[in-house]
Amino acid sequence: MNFTLPSLSLLSQSILSGIFVGALYGLMGLGLSLSWGLLRLINLAHFAFAFLAAYLCYQLSTMGMDPLLTMVVIVPAFFALGAGLHWVMVRFRVMPFNSLLLTFGLTGIAESVIQSIWTADFRKLESSYAQQKFKLAGLFVPVPELITLVLAVGLTFAVWAVLRYTDLGRAMRAAAQDAPVAAAFGVNQKALGLALAGTCAALASVAGVCLALSFTLAPSQMYAWVGVVFAAVMLGGLGSALGPLVAGTVIGISEAITMAVTAPSWAPIVSFTLLIVILVLRPGKTA
Amino acid sequence: MKTGKLSGLDRRAAVAAIAFAASGFAFAQQPSGPPIRIGSTLALTGPLSATAQIHKLVGEIYVEQLNKRGGLLGRPVEWVVKDDQSKPDLARTLYEQLVTADKVDLLMGPYATGAILSAMGVAQRYNKVLVHHTLGIPSLAKYDMQFPAWSIGSDPATTVPNTLFDALAASPKPPKTVAVVTSKFPSIQFMSAGAREVLKKRGLTEVLFLEWDFGNRDFGPIANRVKDAKPDFVWVGAIGLEGNLLLDAMKKIDYLPPQHFYLYPAPGPLLASPDARNALSATIFEGQPPFTSNLGAAEFVKIYGERAARAGFTDTSVETQAAASYTAWQILEAGVVGTKSLDDKAIANYLKTHKVDTLQGKLRFDGTGNFGDDLMRIKQIQDGKWVVVWPKEVTAGGAKLLAP
Amino acid sequence: MSFRRTPWVIVLAGAALAFVPQLGLPAFYDSLLYLMLHWVVLATSWNILSGYSGYFSFGHGAFFGAGIYTSANLMARHDWPFLWTLPAAAGVAAVLGVALGAVVFRVKGVRGELFALLTLAITFVIGTIVVNTPLDGGNGVSLAAVPVPKIGPTPSATFYLLALAAAVATLLIAWAIQVSKFGAGLFAIHDDEDAAEVLGVPTYRYKLVALAISCALAGMAGGIHALFLSYVTAGDVFTITVPLTVVLMSVLGGTRHWAGPAVGAVAITGLLYSFTAADHAVAGKAMIGVILIVAILFMPDGILERVRRLWQRRR
Amino acid sequence: MRADGPTPLTEAPLRAATTTGARGDVLLRVQGLSKSFKGVRALGGVDVEVRRGEILGLLGPNGSGKSTFINVVSGHFAPTAGSIWFEGRCLNGLPAHRIAGSGIARTYQIPRPFGHLSVLQNVAVATMFGGAARNPAAACRQAMRWLEFTGLEDKAGARPDDLNLHQRKFLELARALAARPRLVLLDEVLCGLTPSEIDDAVALIRRIRDQGSTIVFVEHVMRAVMALTDRIVVLNHGELLAEGAVGDVMKRPEVMTAYLGKAHA
């Protein structure tokens, strides 16, 4: 490990890059965290949903649609998909770790569907956004990443506000904490659960669109995100709206700084050691 | 059992001989008799499937062509291919199945290093010839009857970088400073380490050396460090998407290296990227003269293009992977035809003592580890197309390495 | 089934299976059965800590990988004979596990998903260390030159017999723990760790011992697998695949019984293997997904529990 | 949670044999016991002695530190200061399972059975880890006896989820007893039970003492306190307020104040 003193512009540009990728971790983690924390379902298919949405975005865009506009079609579709999946989960009373198994099966199916429609080839969405960037205070800001950041922050705060300040959100959190009591207070858990699961899937699809905007897609790539996004979700606190974004950004920035000052191949050790230290020193009080 | 088979063979040979005589010389005879079965596995699902689909398509095309030409030894050829799910341990088990349960007559190799080594172990235990597609680290091939279809020579970590730096030295702007950035993927890291040695020996200055873990997602900081180092030339030891991701990241900070080389890029996406102009890479084959005059090349490039388009591939051109795959089949066919037998020992001896005419030219297998010459060529993206620019004898239409 | 009959059944089944290489079946059956038994060892060893005590670990890949790299390095760089590397592989994995557990199990808040996260993080940390140090260095470790001991008639039979021995040992250990006081303590920890501690269960020590046993067995499985692979790369070892697969196997088979993970391992390995025909590879992958979903919907407590209930109803 | 006033109880049968507590040697001595949670003091230097063979009632309004006392003595929390001596041995710093092993058992106010184990297994675990039985088979046999003792023998194969609150409280008791402790800490075992169930429970607690266990007993149901205890200790704001025979102590003005507020002083 050789340390080099980075220039200021290198460091700040790298941190910016870490923030962008961290925002994507957070955006991907948001729905996962809500579903895990509030519905007690570990939805591995969240990644499959994101990739399915990314491919749909790619497809619709190559057919001439604006990539961002594809969300008009994609988001409601995934809301329905998520709600449908949740209906099945509730119908069969699937337990948390069984949900992991079930959604793993679903992920395999999604991967096959993607591979048979779009082949195993790499697909890159060449949109009008891809080329755009601007310079701000000496730093380059690419537009696709900025879109991701804005969506991640916006949606995170929107979800946070809904959970915190609306009756609906309070009912959701109550139902997660103590289902029988919530039921006694007239919370319609079934409808709430369906709505929440739909929202989670919709969030996954937004993350998918962001993925399509700035990354190249391949069917098996969906597994590459599982580890780091799981980490962001768990570090951020299950069911927390702000957690995944904060934790994702922390991971992204710490990796980016490591890459800027020393061998990039050591980057995972820094973020994951940081994570372990946080867990051991401040268990349960993360983010 | 054994005698029965032999007599059956004799009978079939006799039938074939009669058929051959009857049909005359102008037309290929209809293959007859029980098929010759050739077994292999490919990573049709899982993380390696993007490249495996190329090899599957090539295999299908070749076997079709072969059967149209009359098969092997007058018998039709059947390709038994299984999906190793990108897992080397499953590849090993499946090759054992091919040999011991399916009792295939011949083996054909898989394509990724891990799977090739798994298959090689099985081939060694059962004394089978193994022709394999793209083994990146020749020193790992320790079996006497394995034959590489990818002619990178026995020491590519020295020869390939030398070819590249020769090309650069002859270019209008020979670089003086070099940045080496590389993935820690085994076959990549090995070549990048060689490149570092070579550039040191040639008196070039290494201004930056970076390694990243395979599976890295954020290339922003790496791009920034390359930009800061201001190299004349960047060696990008990248596999698959990594080259694109790095290029994307460079573009985002408004940087394009003066000259850049990508080791094993996913060819389609790199070509499609507008920022990849002048990007260099290495190849053993391109669908352009003089390569197209090699054995079977012109026809194959045409058929592959059609079939790849029909299968929905993003890249329909023939380059390293498809060419190595086709070559592997040509080598195996040459061995069988040359010995007129399916005997593995005989085929191996024949291949070691004869040159084989293939898509890549004449190949020999008498070097260290059965590797022959390093036929890696340097190509460059010019006007949205890959053009071979070095060495001179394989360039077409006076193509030259462009340096902005 | 009475308590004392079970170990004899396991040993006799193992002894009977040891004759498979003599049956004259095509040799690849040895390899296929090896893969199944390999996963039996991994899933069952995972279950000893995670299934019994409820501490779901996502770090099994780290301990498995520690075993692989211990064995591979000792063979390739220090010329140890293969069989001698196996205790070392088990030992290194166990020491790693105990070191982790000694810190983590003292922290009361690290339970449930936080434990899962911590162990997952350990996997990536160890993977990064391995790939950046001479343990691997990024080029992988080739074991092509290491001789396979002649235990069975063929190398594949040798691996099969080794894995069989490992599986029998693992199952015996898993059974012995389940019916012992130790097992009772682990099951109590699973349901309510604080109440268990107050009832006298030495929770810290029990978790640590369970983790050590679990890691040692995973490390041993890794040691055997290193030579089976004969070329090991960090990219293939330190992934989320191993932990995810053992969790799936255990949950599918049933985590509250010593035999559950083994049933799940055989089922999933068999399932993966049965869809290797190239023509339907992609459809096969989807099919595996469908089967998993159906299995979990209709057998939520695992295959074993379902079979047991059917059996009881029949009687 | 109710804070029952010191209503005089009239049910004669319950009161019968309890007043004759054997005055034995000191079984548990707690000196200057303090416990703070992030600076908030829950116990502030409490001195209590429990004598062998007695039933000691631990009383006090909500938040007075009764449950904290039990949690600290049972090892659930480590004390901030002070010492705990049991049968002449210092328990300070011992992990909870060692304290359990040395002969102290407790129950939880809200029963915490092991949800995936059967009722019998729940008790058998306690039997094994209390040191009363070595192997699982013997533990099951003994556990069955404790189920008979608490009247749960029909439920041996059931899951805790299938029990009603009353039965779960008794399971909690059976688990505590199965370790054959010399000292049992009961945390509001009667809370939430119907009057007739309380009568059953009181009879059971008396039988536990007759078995030879000493009992510390946190309770709000004054009827039972009156019926069972030999002595009581009253805590308020984490400090010892009064100590003595139940009839005397409850009449003291400072106790009345603590329970009922200033107006009643």
Secondary structure layout plus pairing:
The complex is a heterotetramer of chains A (287), B (404), C (315) and D (265).
Chain B (H helix, E strand, L loop, with lengths): L1 H22 L12 E7 L6 H20 L8 E7 L4 H14 L4 E3 L4 H13 L4 E3 L13 E3 L7 H14 L7 E7 L2 H16 L3 E8 L7 H10 L3 E8 L1 H11 L6 E7 L1 H6 L7 E4 L13 H14 L9 H20 L4 H10 L2 E3 L2 E3 L13 E6 L2 E6 L14
Parallel strand pairs in B: 1-2, 1-3, 3-4, 4-5, 6-7, 6-8, 8-9, 9-10
Antiparallel strand pairs in B: 10-13, 11-12, 13-14
Helix pairs in contact in B: 2-10, 2-11, 3-4, 5-6, 7-8, 11-12
Chain C lengths: L4 H13 L10 H26 L6 H19 L3 H23 L7 H21 L8 E2 L12 H24 L2 H11 L1 H6 L4 H27 L1 E2 L1 H4 L3 H13 L6 H14 L7 H18 L4 H12 L1
Antiparallel strand pairs in C: 1-2
Chain D lengths: L11 H4 L10 E12 L2 E12 L3 E5 L6 H8 L7 E6 L2 E2 L5 H6 L2 E3 L12 H11 L6 H15 L14 H14 L4 E5 L7 H16 L3 E5 L3 H7 L2 E6 L2 E6 L1 H4 L3 H8 L5
Parallel strand pairs in D: 3-8, 3-9, 6-7, 7-8
Antiparallel strand pairs in D: 1-2, 1-4, 4-5, 9-10
Describe this protein's structure.
The complex is a heterotetramer of chains A (about 290), B (about 400), C (about 325) and D (about 260). Chain A is mainly alpha-helical. Chain A is about 70% helix and about 5% strand. Chain A has a two-stranded antiparallel ribbon. In chain A, strands 2-3 form a two-stranded antiparallel sheet. Chain B folds into two domains: about 30-150 and about 290-370, Rossmann fold, CATH 3.40.50; about 155-285 and about 375-395, Rossmann fold. Chain B has helices spanning about 1-25, 50-70, 90-100, 115-125, 155-170, 185-200, 220-230, 240-250, 265-270, 295-310, 320-340, 345-355, and strands spanning about 35-40, 75-85, 105-110, 130, 145-150, 175-185, 205-210, 235-240, 260-265, 280-285, 355-360, 360-365, 375-380, 385-390. In chain B, the strands form three sheets. Chain B has a seven-stranded mixed beta sheet with strand order 7-6-8-9-10-13-14, with helices on both faces. In chain B, α2 packs across α10 (about 295-310) and α11 (about 320-340) packs across α12 (about 345-355). Chain C is mainly alpha-helical. Chain C has one domain (about 5-240). Chain C has 14 helices and two strands. A two-stranded antiparallel sheet of chain C has the order 1-2. The interface of C and D includes residues 3 and 256 of C.
Strand proportion of chain A, as a percent range, falls in under 5%
Number of helices of chain B: 12
**Ends apart, CA distance between termini of chain A:** 30 Å
- The portion of residues forming beta strands of chain B comes to 15-25%
Largest sheet report of chain A: 2 strands, antiparallel
- How widely separated are the two ends of chain B? 69 Å
Radius of gyration based on Cα positions of chain B: 22 Å
Helix and strand string of chain A, N-terminal first?
HHHHEEEHHHHEHHH
Q: State the low-pLDDT regions of chain B, or none.
A: 1-9, 14-27
Mean pLDDT of chain A: 88
Q: State mean pLDDT of chain B (0 to 100 scale).
A: 88
| Domain unit count of chain B | 2
**Class computed from helices, strands and strand pairing of chain B:** alpha/beta
Structural class, from secondary structure content of chain A?
mainly alpha
Q: Looking across the biggest beta sheet of chain A, what order are the strands in? A: 1-4
> What is the strand tally of chain A?
4
Number of helices of chain A: 11
Low-confidence stretches of chain A: none
Oligomer status: heterotetramer
Number of strands of chain B: 14
Which shape of chain A, going by the Cα principal axes? globular
